Structure formats: C-alpha cells, structure tokens
Amino acid sequence: MSSGLLLSSVLIVTLLWRVFIYTRLLIASAPLNRLPGPPRESFWNGNLRQFLARHAEDFQKHVAVDFGPVVKMSGYFGRPLLYVSDSRALHNILIKEEHIFQEQEVFISSNLRLFGPSLLATYGQRHGKQRKILNPVFSINHMRSMLPLFYTVCHKLREAITGRLQDGPRELDMLHWTGRVSLELIGQGGLGYSFDPLVEDKEDPYGQAVKALIPNFGRVLHLRWLAVLADKWNVPRWLQRAVVQAFPADSPIRKLLEAVDTMDRQSRAIYSMKKRAFDQGDAEVVKQIGEGKDILSILMRANAQADVNERLSEEEVVAQLSTLIFAAMDTTSNTLSRTLQLLAQYPDVQDKLRRELLETGAAQGTSYDQLNQLPFLDAVCRETLRVHPAAGNRFRINRAVADTVLPLSEPVTTLDGAVLSKIAIPKGTEVLVGVMGSNMNRALWGEDALEWKPERWLSPLPSAVTDARMPGVYSNLLTFIGGKRSCIGFKFAEMEMKVVLAVMLTTFTFALTDKPILWTSANIMFPTVGRNAIRSELPLRVGLYKPARL
Ligand code: HEM
Question: What pathway, per the record (predicted)?
Fold first, then answer.
C-alpha cells in the first residue's frame, strides 16, 4: 500500500470515529432537551454566538436568571451545553468531581503556549502539586506583610493623578490608571519587580509584552484548535515554532509569539537574578529572597524547603510569573474601574464611603485587619464583585469515562412537567459555571438581586444565601469560583481593591461624563465609549476632594 493511501485511510477512519462519537453524544444528550432554556440560534452555532457576542450581557443575564438553576443551551454543532447555578450541582462540578469536569482542552493548550506549564495550563496531579506549593504563598499572613508595599504604590498613583489636576477637575481615563496600578502592584507584590514608576511615563518591555498579549491572542482565537491537535499528536515544539515563524512579521500570530518570548525572557531573567544571588549569597538580593515579601521570593523559599518530590521545576516556577501577571491584571483593574464608575453614578454611596475612609484614616496606611474591618468599604467591594464578576463565563467539560449524574439541591421541573432531583450528564457535555446565575439568584438574594446595593452587606445576609452553601471561595459568591481551580489570588485582589479605593476616594471625587460607557462581554469584561469602539477606556470627571468648610 502506498504511503498516500495509508494516510488517507487513517484520516478517513479517524473522521468516521469522531462522527460516531459525536452522534452518540447527540443521541445520549437528547433527554437534556427537556430542560428549560433559550431556543438555539442555529445547529452550527447553538446559543454560543448569542452568549459570547460582544454585547451579550443582557442575554447572559436572561440565561442566568430567567430559566432556573439548570438551563439547557447548545454549543457548536448541537453539542449539549448546560448553564448550572444549583449549589449542589456546582459542588459536584467544582469540588467533588473536579477530576471529571475539567477545563476545555483549548483553554489548557493555549495557556501552555502563552505561559508555559503553570496553574492555568496543567490538569490533575501536576496542577495539584503546583497548588500545594502555591496556596500557602497567598496566605493572609503574607498578604499582611505585603500591605505596606501596596500603600507605597498607591501613594505614587495618588501623586501621579494629583499632578494632572493642577488646573482643576478634568476628564481622565480611569481604566488607564487602574490598569497601571494593577500591573505595578502585581509586579512588585508578585515578582519583586517594578514595571511602572507611575509618577513618570516609562515603557517597560515586560509590561508592554503583557499588554500586547491579549489583543493579539484575540486575533488568532480561531487557531486555538491547532494547539490542541499539536498537543494530541506530540508535534515537536521546534516545528510548531517554525510554522509560526513562516507568517509575516507584522501578522498577529508573530506579534503574539514576540510578546510570549519577551514575557518568557523577562521572567527567566528575574528568576535567574534572584536564584544566582541566592546561591552566591548576594546580600541585597538574598535579603529580598530571605525577607522578600513578594510572591516569587516566598515561592522560591517554599520550593527550596519542600520535599524533593514535591518541588516545582524551574520551568514551572518561571511559568507562574507571567500567569500571575496575566491573571491579576485586567481582572482586578477592570473591577476597580467598574467600582469607580458605580461610585460616580451613585454620589451618595461615594460620599458615604469617603466619610468612612476619612474618619478611619485608611488612606495613609492601616493594618490589614483594620482595613478589612471597614464595613462600608467591604460592602462596596463585595457588592461590585457580586453583580459584576469580571471573569464570569467559566466552561467545564465532562470527561468521565462513562456518563455521570449531577445531584441537585432543589428539584427542577422539565418542559414536559417531570420533576428531577438529579440529571444524567453524558460524557462530552459542556457545562458553564453559573457565576451570574448564583450571584444574582432572586430566590437566594431577594427580588432586588440584580441591583447594586452595597447596603445589603451591612445586615446579616438572607438565610437562603447562607443555607445554599455555594461552593465559592469568597463570601457566598462564585466570582472567584471554588474548588481546586478557584482563584488563588482572591485575597490579593480584595486587598488591592480596598487600598486603591481608600487612597483614591479620600483624595479625589469621581463623576460621570456625558460619554456613554458600555461593557463588552469578553473573557474578562472591559469598558468602551460607545458600542463599537475598539479601545477600552473609562472616562470619568476627576477632581481634587476638598473637605467642606464648617
Ligand atoms: C477581581 C479580580 C479577580 C477575579 C474576578 C478573578 C477570577 C478568577 C476566576 C473566576 C478564576 C478561575 C478560572 C477558571 O476556572 O477557568 C481565577 C483563577 C486564577 N486567578 Fe484570579 N481573579 C482575580 C484576581 C486575581 C489575582 C489578583 C491573582 C494573582 C495575584 C489571580 C490569580 C489567579 C490564578 C493563578 C488562577 C488560576 C488558578 C488555578 O487554576 O489553579 N487572580 N481567577
């Protein structure tokens, strides 16, 4: 048999096998069609085009709150997709059967190329081993010791913005500033590295590469499947690289490669510098590693002390650096800018928060515990994280060897009137973790669940919320999801939000301009002016706060 004929036969058999598996999935998932949900747009796109469209926030809310705790949708080519916000079912998906409901392959394979083998690019035991070393690095004690550094950076932000208001109030793009301060905080707090002095405009190659990553990645999303195939077929790295390098130098994929290479080079340089100094006893850097309060220093110390079998390889440690910057930056800065927009929209809430911050002197530097005991600051942060989860669409796929069963905390009624207390989930079914659906569930939070009302956190939460035992790591919410793949940096994010707000609100006033701000439903939501703008920005009218004279 000629090699051409052999290759075609292999391809045909593989294709037929795939079609067989897929048809089996469609047949096995037919009973799921009895569950309530929106009609699909087409067989090819299912509901995904509606759900992932640029301005899909209203459709996403419709799915989240109008059909109940388990919603039937369709993925591409009729693939079954469930939107789940039932607490017991979510407990199963995120905690009990986390090994079955895994991240999609495209997510893992693309992250592997962007960051290397980090938390965002590994499954199972390898991921578990990384979490074991990294979890203690994000402990409250470490956050406590990082707090003074956060204040130092935020005071520079205050100086930088004050400098721009010498001629009176003016419009400023607050997303630009929350972005800069978030990058600097994760730089200094995460890596012991300064990206941006804030008080002067200086470009840093690492910072530029991080900023170029997502826009260029967004332009080659359709190629993500090739990464999955390359992993499945063990295509050598040099060959994958050669293919990418065959594209023109100004193509998005080459720019993406350039950003990835720069991030990798800079991460390695920071790691090696610390390691060399550690090995050779360079007093200044050893001081940073030995007493350093940044995440990398703590991680290197923990790794050196860990049992040999539990240690992370150098490649794994380096891969965490860009991962942390990426995971920390837009999520936190966009949530912060959303908070400022809401405070501008509700001036009475802004005044009340400012009063609390001024009365307690929170802007100058306070202890971690005192900062966390400010009730209204806490309420504003929690309420914004509840109603506006920055990364609200988390997909999982059932990779069970056999079909599996999802138990429910409350029975659901099917379209033909049957009452189900559990649902059979065929292998291959996709699941969307219902972050909005549980954070804004009227049955739990009350009829005003969709409204932003920080006051709700000043009294005990409804017992329905606490009794539901949502499997989220933070405050009965799913904003940082839960389980082994929950957000490892949620305390870092919370502390950052609180310090930035404490310093900003006591120095500046924020008001809306007449420009229409719209939020785009992307992997991480971002604001733009007008519906079709490309540039993300959040213009607010900013003035210096002047205390009223008695
Ligand atoms: C408001 C800010 C933030 C939000 C809303 C947020 C949300 C999330 C969510 C939903 C996940 C789960 C992703 C998934 O399952 O696919 C996640 C994972 C992660 N986050 Fe965050 N995050 C925030 C800030 C941060 C910060 C500040 C850091 C680091 C300092 C961080 C580091 C990570 C990492 C490393 C992961 C991957 C964890 C793993 O897979 O084991 N995040 N985040």
Answer: Secondary metabolite biosynthesis
Overall size of the chain counted in residues: 550
Q: Cite the residue boundaries of each domain of the chain with CATH code 1.10.630.10.
A: 134-391+484-544
pLDDT digits (tens, 9 = 90+) for 158-217: 999 999 999 999 999 999 999 999 999 999 999 988 999 998 888 888 888 988 888 889
Distance CA 41, CA 56 (A): 14
pLDDT digits (tens, 9 = 90+) for 249-274: 999 999 999 999 999 999 999 999 88
**Mean pLDDT value across the chain:** 92
Task: State the pairing for strand pair 430-434/80-84.
Answer: parallel
Tens digits of per-residue pLDDT, 85-132?
999 999 999 999 999 999 999 999 999 999 999 999 999 999 999 999
Q: How far apart are CA 70 and CA 528, in angstroms?
A: 32
Tell which one of 107, 331, 523 to mutate to probe ligand 1, the residue whose CB is within 8 A of the most ligand atoms: 331
491, 147 Cβ separation under 8 angstroms: no
Decide: 16 and 413 in contact? Cβ < 8 Å: no
Q: Whose Cα sits closest to atom 43 in ligand 1?
A: 487
Could you tell me if the ipTM is greater than 0.90?
yes
What's the maximum distance between 2 C-alpha atoms anywhere in the chain?
A: 96
The edge-to-edge listing of strands for the beta sheet with 430-434 is: 70-74, 80-84, 430-434, 393-398, 101-102
| Atom from ligand 1 closest to the CA of residue 390 | 5
Span from the CA of 481 to the centroid of ligand 1 (angstroms): 9
Architecture of domain 134-391+484-544: Orthogonal Bundle (1.10)
Distance 323 CA to ligand 1 centre (A): 10
Whole-prediction pTM: 0.94
CA nearest neighbour of 121 among 385, 361, 318: 318
Ligand 1 pocket by C-beta < 6 Å: which residues?
Answer: 103, 119-120, 131, 186, 323-324, 327-328, 331-332, 335, 389-391, 394, 479-481, 485, 487-489, 492-493
Determine the distance separating the centroid of ligand 1 and the alpha carbon of 488, expressed in angstroms. Answer: 6
Which ligand 1 atom minimizes the distance to the CA of 335? 1
The preferred substitution site among 120, 210, 487 for testing ligand 1, maximizing ligand atoms within 8 Å of CB, is 487
